[in-house]
Amino acid sequence: MRFAHLRVEGQTTPRLAVVVAEAALFLDDVMASAPCDLQDLIERGPDGLAEVRSMVDEALAAGAELVPVSELRHSSAILRPAQVIAIGANYAAHASELKLRSETAMTIFSLWPNSLAGHGGTTAWPEDLTTQVDYEAELGVIIGRPARGVHVRDALDYVWGYTVVNDITARDLQFSEAQWSRCKSFDGFTPTGPVVVTADEIADPQDLWLTTNLDGRILQDASTNEMVRGVAEIISYLSRSATIPPGTLISTGSPGGAGYSRNPQVFLRDGSTVTVSIEGIGSLTTHCRIV
User: Fold this and answer.
1) Does residue 79 lie within any of the structural domains?
2) Does residue 142 belong to any structural domain of this protein?
């Protein structure tokens, strides 16, 4: 199934919807006690998801009215995550181009929840704070149940779903500070979406194609099989030291092709449109403004 947080133009509160063939079925239209958002649904466990599947099947069979997604506005595909964890330097090409080392231990940092944004939105940043804003196509992984001490062979059983992430980064801040959280956590710097697809729709998270299209130019074009550490290994590693709670979003790193490393360098500009796509999930578009 595919889930999104959508709202009618002019509304401020998003509603959880199932997306079917580019049309949306709002769960609160067909369920008396519908989950208010994706985090609520995840916390209801397998029985909660099974109930949603059953109610949606019944509604579709009965001819429920769907709303074209094109008539709606997206919020972040992830709302109220338990935490947002990012993995750095997880593709050899990206680590090399930024002159970073793929350490023996994973490079792990947090993204602040204020950075989450939705498909089709506008992300703005002040020119007096950063002039080197970059894109990063990443596969997002959503954890479905508490993960503690998980073996690699079992790790994918803990995945609830997958989404597209654009890990927007202020490079000038990244390389002037000892941590990577602030440079990636401006308001709107972590667009996600347009949907979250449940894990059963992705046969192998290490066999997906990622692309980044900036103003009509393809700048990233790679497969998730190029990860230094795959999704299962990431989950297992993180779960060794602390429980990963349900609803956690893990952004798994970006392939080569970042704008910072290009000659000449390519950065997001005022008026730029950047679209990150992942095979089997969808395309996530962000419009850029400098203020």
Assistant:
1) no
2) yes
**Is 30 inside a domain boundary?**
yes
pLDDT higher than threshold 90 for residue 160? yes
- Taking the complete model, does pTM exceed 0.85, yes or no? yes
Q: State pLDDT tens for residues 221-279.
A: 999 999 999 999 999 999 999 999 999 999 999 999 999 999 999 999 999 999 999 99
Of 32, 49, 74, the residue at which a domain comes to its end is: 74
Are 70 and 4 in contact by the 8 Å Cβ rule? The answer is no
Q: Are residues 238 and 269 in the same domain?
A: yes
Structural domain containing residue 174: 84-290
68 and 95: one domain?
A: no
Are 189 and 219 members of one domain? yes
Residues 21, 73: Cα–Cα separation, whole Å: 16
Q: What is the pLDDT of residues 21-77, one digit of tens each?
A: 999 999 999 999 999 999 999 999 999 999 999 999 999 999 999 999 999 999 999
